[in-house]
Amino acid sequence: LTEKMAGIGEMLQGKKKITAASVERALGEVKRALLDADVNLKVTNGLIESVRNQAVGKLLIEGVTPDQQFVKIMYDELVKVMGSQQAPLARSTKEGEPVVILLAGLQGAGKTTAAAKLAKFCQERGAGVAPAEEPQPEMKEGEVWTPPQREGPPGKVLLVAGDVYRPAAIEQLQRLGERIGAEVFAPGRDVDPVDIARGGVQYARDGGFDAVIVDTAGRQVIDEKLMDELVKVKGACEPDEVLLVVDAMTGQEAATLTAAFNERVGITGAILTKLDGDSRGGSALSVQGVSGRPIKFVGVGERIDDLEPFYPDRMASRILGMGDIVSFVEKAQKQVSEAEMAQLSQKMMDATFDFNDFLEQSKVVRNMGSMANVAKMIPGMAGKLSQQQMDDAEDRAERADLFISLMLPEERTNPDLLIRDAAALQRQRRIAKAAQVRPQDVAAFISDFQTMRTMMSRMSKRMAPGGDMGGAP
Length: 473
Ligand code: GDP
Ligand code: MG
What we know:
It comes from Tribonema minus. By secondary structure, the chain is an alpha/beta fold. The protein has 3 domains: 2-84, Four Helix Bundle (Hemerythrin (Met), subunit A) (Up-down Bundle); 99-134 and 141-309, P-loop containing nucleotide triphosphate hydrolases (Rossmann fold), CATH 3.40.50.300; 328-463, 434 Repressor (Amino-terminal Domain) (Orthogonal Bundle), CATH 1.10.260. 54% of the residues lie in helices and 9% in strands. The protein contains 19 helices and 8 strands. It has helices at 2-13, 20-36, 41-61, 66-81, 111-125, 169-180, 193-206, 224-237, 253-264, 282-291, 312-320, 328-335, 338-349, 355-368, 371-377, 387-405, 409-413, 422-435, 439-463, and strands at residues 99-105, 157-162, 183-185, 211-216, 241-247, 269-273, 295-299, 307-309. Strands 3-2-4-1-5-6-7-8 form an 8-stranded mixed β-sheet, sandwiched between helices. Helix 3 packs antiparallel against helix 4 (66-81) and helix 9 (253-264) runs parallel beside helix 10. The longest helix is centred in the last third of the chain and has 25 residues, at 439-463. Bound molecules: guanosine-5'-diphosphate and magnesium ion. Magnesium ion binds at residues 111-112, 163, 169. Residues 105, 107-113, 218, 245, 273-274, 276-277, 299-302, 306 line the site of guanosine-5'-diphosphate.
């Protein structure tokens, strides 16, 4: 998926004209990529529709390269689809009562492993009822947030062995509980899971536990009897959280099973496991897209420590492969150092900006993208030039190198020789003849040069320190 997304950016980048048709083509690619990544069709369509609505209007007017604009819109949508913010684990709502967490999911999804990982998480989170989990603060792109470290005694956590069907399930949980020093409530395989859940929660209440985590048997969506049982287990333990454990490799099935569990049992969130594997990423989008419930944690390995809070923005970056996507501003600032810019704008103020500078400058500009894109960066410029005008400008810019190469050194350093008078016309004709073009083509270039001077002057003011696109001091 990541590779495909990168390709889509490149596709748009090469475009001179950003038309509804080119957005459509890019969206077609995105759609294929998402479906290939096993994102549910309904979720995919919703996403595409939303991006289309924003992209078609926006690409034409805003001052960022279209590919980056497009990727940004995609990114924002992905973050939105995945719930925008990190969703913290619930706290107990009742003073002195443990928080009750019920885990559900298919056989082999990683429930029992997740139970132990969560138990460790709750131990580390510590004792006591809310204060509510601190919400993730507003983050700039690329910033990483780590929750504040907590001090105090570890939380007292009870693991409840509710899987009475798989032969070794209870022993597995007991082993894990031993390893992290968490008590395991395991009355045995011949006890009704509903009674185990009820008994476990009661035991945790009486014992002053901070958290109780109920492991359950894996069940197929189609197994009505087991789904019924799960509903009863939920009724018996009145959980604060019902977390659906979803294997990230599940693919298309993730949507179906999320919908089924949510409708049948009702979930409050999900844990996406095995994200360390060769996951195609689609499940992350499907789960929230289908249920409206957030993914709260991700499993990133088989060890007990391999549990992380789920961050929608990081996941979106992972899906888009945006690690190396820099904003247009950053890109522009890299191409044109502030020192160079200051020097150039000084030259423009001194009216010493000449054809040699132009040559240098147009190289930089071409590195940044098309003329059209550059024009869009400049306030007042966007919308005033037609697509045709911008395309023509681009073609003319390509001839600029040729024309300048045919100029005499004194003409390059003193553009006025080509601008002012009848003698200037003679010089223009000479260049036209040598370049095998019409004189008006050279005249057009000279007029372009003057426009360029103005553009560069405005841009340098915007990009200079203190300008609205200026770098940090
Ligand atoms: P359950 O049937 O849902 O209880 O699944 P288990 O917890 O028994 O896990 C099934 C298998 O998946 C085990 O071999 C686990 O070690 C493995 N597993 C669980 N979570 C992860 C994870 O996040 N990453 C990886 N690589 N393996 C995992
Ligand atoms: Mg299990």
